[in-house]
Structures are given as C-alpha cells and as structure tokens.
Design a protein that fits this description.
The protein is an alpha+beta fold and about 375 residues long. The protein has two domains: about 10-155 and about 325-380, no CATH class; about 160-320, D-Maltodextrin-Binding Protein, domain 2, CATH 3.40.190. It contains eleven helices and 19 strands. Strands 1, 2, 3, 4, 7, 8, 9, 10, 11, 14, 15, 16 and 17 form a 13-stranded mixed beta sheet that branches. Strands 5-6 form a two-stranded antiparallel ribbon.
Length: about 375
C-alpha cells in the first residue's frame, strides 16, 4: 500500500475539516470489493440522486485503484465528491482508525474530470485523512485493533480463489497443508505432485502485502496464521523473479498492493525460467486473490484455476459451507467521521446499498448464505 508519512494535525496546527473542502469524503480499503462498491456508487438513487460523474485512474473503470465520484447525495443538497483509493482492507482499517495522524493520497481535485484514464496513475494527488473504509475482515482479525471503531456494518460476503501459473507443477487442486508449506517458503514440487523425484524445483506463493484483507483470509483459512511472516515471491509478467530488497533475497514478506497487479503476473510461463533462489531452471507459482481478479488472471492472462481441498470454487459451494475461502465484508467509519461521511456510510450500508450489488460471484448477499462464521480462523457453520 502507498501511504504518506504520518502527519500529526496538532503539530501542523490544522483540523480535519480545514484539510478537506466542504463536500469531500475520502474512502479506502478492499481492492477485492472495489468493483461491487463501484456498481453501487454509479447507480442513480443508491448513493447519489443521479448517476455521478466518475473519474478513474490506475486500472480503469470498476477495476481502478483510484476513483472519484461527484454528484448530489440522496437526501442531500449541493455537490459531494467521494474520493477512493483502494489499497487493501488492512490499510483501510488502519486509515480510519488513525485518521488524525495518517494521511493517504487520492486523485487531486484538479484532475476530477469525469474520464476513465485506464492504467495511468494520477499526475498529482492530494493528501487527506480517511473517513470510510471497506474491509474483507472485521477489526477483531486486523493488525489495527485499537481504537475500536464504533460505526461499522456487515454488507456481504467477499469471495476468493487460488490460481496457478504455467510452471513445472501442473495440478488443479491445492490443500491447506500444501498452502501452509508453500507460504513457509521453498516447498519442493513433490509436496504438490506426489512424485518423490520432484525435489529439485519449488512451488512458491505470490500474493498480497500485509495491508491486504485477501491475505488475512488466505492465511487464516489455511491455518498458516494471519500474522505469520511468509516467504512469498514476486515475478514480472515474463516470469522473472524480483529481488525486492536489493540483497539477492527472492522470497520474503513480499506482496502486491493490488490484486489486479498480482493477477497480471500470473500468466507467466516459468517452466524454463531461472529460479534465482536455488540457481536451477524452472519453478511454479500459486496465488490467492479475489474472484474478480482471479477471473482476470484466468481469462485475460491465462492462469489456471485451482480447487481448494478438492472443492472447486462456486457460489453454491460457498453458500453451503463446502468451500471455505471467503470473508465477511464490512464498511467502517472513522470515529470522528463528519455528517457527510456518515450519510455515505448509511447509504452504502443500507439493504439498498452495497448489498443490492453483490453479484453472487465476486460478492454474495448475506441473506443468500446458508452458513456463517465469525472470521477467517473459524470453519463455516451451516445455518
């Protein structure tokens, strides 16, 4: 996640309201949920009285990491601009819990032009405290447990999927045990293939950074441990392992800020690529991501979907408790959120808000679930 350095308002002699123009609301959090939130925000009569003007950067449309929506709120008057920077659920919880000390970058007001700018990053950004956040896990399972956020609501279930690249391992199923071993680092292919001879190359995990709720759910549901430090790798779209710290360490507590960026690397063929860790040729990569990003990884980039513990991903399997890789989705407000931010919170958390736009695949309505669980470290319990 890209966070600006902490800024203490008292030192600067500024208040929250003085940093934000009247009518501005700032939101961060889950990249996996951004397309569902986008659908709710652009629909006339849900949050804005009529379809708002929409500006997007760094991903394009509902997949953008930077968004701005401008219009008149339902039940309100005048113009509100809702700025979004989707940089991960854990980042979102941290942002709203610490919104008197930490600022985040958003599209600069001068760039809000109602256009989709595709993959381009905004040329300039503004810094602001965050009022609202989306999270794929509750604060109880977050790195940021204090201060307790009083204003929150569950708005659906967010779904995830494992995929693999085209590497030396060619299977179509992973188990929690295999995931745990691969997250630990340098896992021989034999653990996945069952072939005793496959000990000279490895299966690695490429995933998200520690500001991600997708990571919280992947580490929690597999039993690896939400806060356990992994040995993950990153590769580019050509399958070249990345040395992220400059010291020749190709596995560590690495991870992408965005699920979309991660998805774009998973089409790489690494059957003959250099494994820069063990000095041999060929390796394999598995990865976890939101179902929307997994669909892109599979359909656009050529990754291969993986069943989990013998159960392929499907909405029906999630609803009945057979497939456990999913999270409870929340919207949270800062404890000092102003009236305008709370109005947006109320509109998005209502039954006619985000819940309505859960498509049954990337996100599922709570009322459609036949099982529940408190968080990613517990098994689903059928109703």
């Amino acid at each position: 996640m890209k966070l600006n350095k902490s800024l203490v308002a008292a030192v600067l002699g500024l208040s929250l309201t003085s940093l934000c123009q009247a009518g501005d609301v700032f939101m961060s959090g889950s990249t996996a949920m951004r397309s569902t939130v986008y659908a709710a925000l652009i629909n006339a009569g849900t949050v804005f009285q009529s379809a708002p003007s929409v500006t997007t950067y760094n991903g394009g449309g509902s997949g953008a990491n930077y968004m701005a929506f401008r219009g008149t709120l339902v039940g309100g008057s005048g113009t509100t601009t809702l700025y979004c920077h989707w940089s991960g659920s854990e980042a979102g919880i941290l942002n709203v819990a610490s919104n008197t000390t930490i600022q985040v970058d958003f599209i600069d007001a001068s760039l809000v032009d109602g256009a989709d700018h595709g993959s381009a990053l905004p040329a300039t950004t503004q810094n602001a405290f965050v009022n609202l956040a989306m999270a794929d896990n509750s604060q109880a399972y977050s790195r940021t447990k204090k201060p307790t956020l009083a204003t929150k609501a569950a708005v659906g279930v967010i779904t995830f999927e494992w995929v693999r690249n085209h590497g030396l391992w060619t299977g179509t199923n992973v188990t929690d045990s295999q995931v745990r071993q691969a997250l630990g680092g340098y896992c021989p292919r034999a653990v996945f293939s069952g072939n005793a001879a496959d000990v000279n190359d490895y299966v690695y995990v490429s995933g998200r950074n520690n500001q991600s709720g997708t990571r919280v759910n992947a580490f929690g549901t597999s039993g690896f441990g939400i806060f356990t430090i992994p040995n993950q790798v990153e590769m580019n779209a050509s399958g070249v392992m990345q040395d992220l710290n400059g010291f020749g360490t190709y596995a560590g507590d690495y991870g992408y800020e965005s699920g979309g960026t991660l998805a774009s690397t998973m089409g790489a063929n690494t059957t003959t690529a250099a494994d820069l860790f063990n000095g041999k040729t060929g390796y394999s990569v598995i990865s976890y991501m939101g179902v929307g990003d997994a669909s892109s990884a599979i359909g656009t980039y050529g990754a291969v979907p993986l069943a989990l513990n013998g159960v392929p991903f499907s909405s029906a399997a999630i609803k009945e408790g057979q497939y456990g890789f999913w999270g409870n989705e929340y919207i949270l407000a800062a404890n000092n959120a102003n009236t305008e931010a709370l109005a947006v919170f109320n509109l998005l958390s209502a039954n006619t808000g985000i819940n309505t736009f859960c498509d049954g695949t990337k996100a599922i309505k709570l009322t459609d679930m036949h099982c529940t669980r408190t968080g990613p470290t517990s098994d689903p319990s059928h109703n």
